[in-house]
Amino acid sequence: MRLQEDALNSLAGKVALITGAGRGIGRAICTALAQAGAVVAINYAHSEKQARDLQAQIAAEGGRACLYRADVSKEEQVQAMVEAIVQEFGRLDILVNSAGIICRTPFLEISLAEWNRVLGVNLTGAFLCGQAAARHMVAEGGAIINVGSNAGLRPSRLRSHYCVSKAGLAMLTEAMALELAPFHIRVNAIAPGTIQTDMNREALSDPATRAARLQTVPLGRLGVPEDLQGTVLYLASEAASYVTGCTILLDGGQFLV
Predict the structure, then answer these.
(1) What is the pLDDT of residue 5?
(2) The pTM of the whole model exceeds 0.90
(3) Which of 16, 82, 106, 168 lies 20 to 30 Å (CA to CA) from residue 140?
(4) Residue 242 annotated as catalytic
(5) Which pLDDT belongs to residue 188?
C-alpha cells in the first residue's frame, strides 16, 4: 500500500531506527518511514532473511536502509547498535520501538524465565533503546514512538505477562515524554488491537477463534500492519510537533466492546 502523496518526503533527511523491523508491524512501519524519505535502520534479532528482503525492497523503491542485528533486551547490544547508527549517519532523529513477543500461557503455568523474556523484550527493550537513542537526540530533538497494545489497557486471559509489559510501556511513554520534553524529544505510543501478523497467525488460523475475535471489532474487520502506517508517520513528523505523552488506540473500536 502506497502512502498518500502529501505524506511522501515529509521525513527527508531524517534517520530512523525501527526495532523488530524484519516482519509484521515493524516491517510496515519501516516501509512507511522509508517512503516518507527517511533513512531507515532495520533492527532484527532472528529474522535476517526477512530483514534483508526488506532492505532490498526499500532500495528498489529508491530508499536507503541498513541492517543492524541486536537483541533489544541486551544493554550492550543496544548501545553498540545505536552507536553504529550515529557513527554511520551522524544523527538519529526517530526511534520506533516495535520489537515485541507474546506467549499464551495460563497464569499458573508462567515460568520466571518466560515472564522475564516477555518483559525483557517488550518493556526493558523499549527502555534501553529509548535511553540510548535519546542521549543522541538531546542536541536537536527527536521523536520516539512505542508500539504498545490495547491489551495494556485491560487484562486478557493467557497473556498476563504480555498485558503487564504493554501496560508498563504506556506508563514508560508518559514518563519519558515528561522528562525528555525539555530537550524537544517527543514520546508517544500507539496501541493496536488485533493485527494480523506472524505473532498471532496461528491463533487466528482457527475459524472459530477468528470469528469470535472479529465480533469484538466494531469496524467489522481485523487489522493489518499497514493500518498503523499513517499514525506512526504523523507522530514521527513535524505535523505532531505539539503532541507528546499520548497513547493512540488503533484497534477498529475494539476497546469499546
Answers:
(1) 52
(2) yes
(3) 168
(4) no
(5) 98
